[in-house]
Fold this sequence. Notes:
It contains nine helices and eleven strands. By secondary structure, it is of the alpha/beta class. The two termini are 34 Å apart. This is Methyltransferase domain-containing protein.
Amino acid sequence: xxxxxxxxxxxxDERAPLHAASADYAVQRFVDxxxxxxxxxxxxxxxxxxxxxxxxxxLQCHIGTDTLSLARLGAQMSGVxxxxxxxxxxxxxxxxxxxxxxxxxxxxxxxxxVLPQGSxxxxxxxxGALCWLPSIERWAQTVGALLKPGGRLFxxxxxPMLWALNEDHSDSLRVEYPYFERREPxxxxxxxxxxxxxxxxKATVTHEWNHGLGEIISALLAQGLEITGLVEHQxxxxxxxxxxxxxxxxxxxRLKEAPWRLPLSYTLQAVKRPA
Length: 275
């Protein structure tokens, strides 16, 4: 296993139980309320549309709250993640909610080797996933391999312009990190995760990459997908730029001042063309 996979997997294995226990992921609310959906999927619903009866797969599903939410909207869902600790939490949640979801442990680049190729109506990738992948072309190959002709990709992600900003500056927007994909990763060391927790991480080093919007679109086009929608949003579901943001009633954060200056996230949809 390459260094980045080892480091990132160990980090996410540590995060999984902390996330499952946090109020941010609202695990108990999923159990108590069969109609409850994650904030991310709630945001997606107007563009996601009717997914009743679709065969779907959620790539990089983590502890499965978004996967479960898609299943509650009527899709027959599978989930893929490289972290066994995350999948253990996802399976437990699905069982507690009496919802059949087929989970698989796999690096996303190998997902088409553990799932039936060309058999999915919907490939879903949630927010905060692509930054962990060194190659957007290999990700697009996985998407193209899993979708059946006419099947749809739906992704909401943090905007690459946001990822290029240094969040340590609380008084200005400063582009200090790559916008385009580079071979070498950004190497981070942080004992904290993005939810409220009293526990510090021991596996503190992670590797991440940015991918420009044009690179993402070009990679999908190369795999025979047709772009059917691209919406850039002025909000994102966490305080990505501390000290410069305000939160709304949906849990979405936007810039306090002149939010039109910066796209914070985007929704991209594409359909696999017939062979």
